[in-house]
Amino acid sequence: MAAVDLIVIGSGPGGYVAALRASQLGARVVLVEARDLGGVCLNRGCIPTKAILESARILDQLKRAKQFGLTVPSAEVDYAAVVARKDKVVSRLSRGVGMLLKGANVEVVMGRARVLDANTVEVSEGETTTKLEARHLLIATGSEAARPEAFPFDGSRVITSDEALALTTLPASVLIVGGGYIGCEFASMWAEFGSKVTVVEMLPRLLPPADEDVSTEMQRALMRRKVKVHVGTKIETLRTTDTGVVAELSDGKPVEAAIALVAVGRKLNSDLEGLAATGVKLECDAVAVDELCRTSVDGVYAIGDVTGKWLLAHYASEQGMVAAEHLFGGGPEPIDERAVPSCVFTLPEIASVGLTETQARKQPGDVRVGRFDLAALGKAAASGETTGFVKVIGDAAGTVLGVHIVGHEATSMIAEAVLAVRHKLTMDDLVHTLHAHPTMPEAFHEAALDFFGRAIHKA
């Protein structure tokens, strides 16, 4: 095969977006994928979990139908059908990625890549081996579920999120090891479907990186769904039995369950064969890159989870745009690291951007906070979705430093907050921005008013 302009290794939300943007800019691109187009996010992460969570959200609404003056038959969960719908969603979107790549004349080569040098990649698929050459190489190999040796993974009783998404039978009981975003999403989902769920988190609170008010609200929400939550607690031992698993906790309480989902983080796929030999610098298993996604080797770029910066699909996509535009467009604008949104698709949803209150108070100068609870919001009351709040954090000048939202539509509402942090808007800017009534984003407006102590609908 003749040399092309760019070889992209990995077709997740970073890799395929980079390939498409490079093609738009006139580059000849080859995309190498070892498994499924769309990567982990589309096939074993973001999309499948959200598809199942949407079924759980609708079930929650059906259970509350009487509140809306509706009488419906008792809702029953056909978990196999829930999973089948998830598979259809994933399959359609994966085919869509393939169509986009084909339409952009990006050549897709399926197989496992081995880097021979900064311009050459060998791809193996079965008995077939193909050598590819390019002016530039972009690494987008992502991450996978961590599998600490302390846990007896067997794929059926002790599992990761990969196996959890493949289950076609709802587990009667689940021990979730890890109270991060993956653990909390599965806890919300399975508890709503009727599983008995226990979450064990080693650190003092759920969602450790989140604002403390968010962590507190999440624990309350899970406990309302009868999830047993142990924070500041270690798993001393975890063993399998004929009927499931048994864990001994550091607080002395044993936990029995049908399965254990271990959700204690992600392993970066920086061990791509041959990459280290090119001289690409690694920092704590992450491929080190600068603000333009360049590695330590000229012509070799890296994006997404493998860079270890933000393990978020939208961040990977934006890195892909930056890398492609730097290579073939001339002048990209680096990502503003202050304004990266983080979303957790629990019931209720969580979304954040910028500094937490604790982080803000560690900086010099005064910090003020505004908060508005959704219970006082007209649209939330009309929708029957009154759990949660909007919290805004600003400095003495009123500059928006951080926004944290828990509640219905939180993951959509955060977009306005990202814009505010990105452009260093002030609380006064938010106060003088008209928010349509009745809508959920009015809570953002009220929180900004509360920053000045003058929220209209707060007693």
SSE order and pairing:
Blueprint: E1 4-9, H1 15-24, E2 29-33, H2 39-44, H3 46-63, H4 79-103, E3 107-110, E4 112-117, E5 120-125, E6 128-139, E7 143-145, E8 158-159, H5 161-166, E9 173-177, H6 181-193, E10 196-201, H7 212-224, E11 228-231, E12 235-240, E13 245-249, E14 254-257, E15 259-262, E16 266-268, E17 282-283, E18 286-287, E19 300-302, H8 313-328, E20 342-344, E21 350-354, H9 357-361, E22 367-373, H10 378-383, E23 389-395, E24 400-406, H11 410-422, H12 427-431, H13 442-451
Parallel strand pairs: 1-2, 1-6, 2-3, 6-19, 8-15, 9-10, 9-15, 10-11
Antiparallel strand pairs: 4-5, 5-6, 7-16, 12-13, 13-14, 17-18, 20-21, 21-24, 22-23, 23-24
Helix pairs in contact: 1-8, 3-4, 3-6
What does this structure look like?
The chain is 32% helix and 25% strand. It is an alpha/beta fold. The protein has three domains: 4-144 and 267-337, FAD/NAD(P)-binding domain (3-Layer(bba) Sandwich), CATH 3.50.50; 158-264, FAD/NAD(P)-binding domain (3-Layer(bba) Sandwich), CATH 3.50.50.60; 348-451, FAD/NAD-linked reductase, C-terminal dimerisation domain (Enolase-like, domain 1, 2-Layer Sandwich). Helix 3 (46-63) runs parallel beside helix 6 (181-193). The longest helix has 25 residues, at 79-103. The radius of gyration is 23 Å and the shape is globular. 47% of the residues are buried. The mean pLDDT is 96.
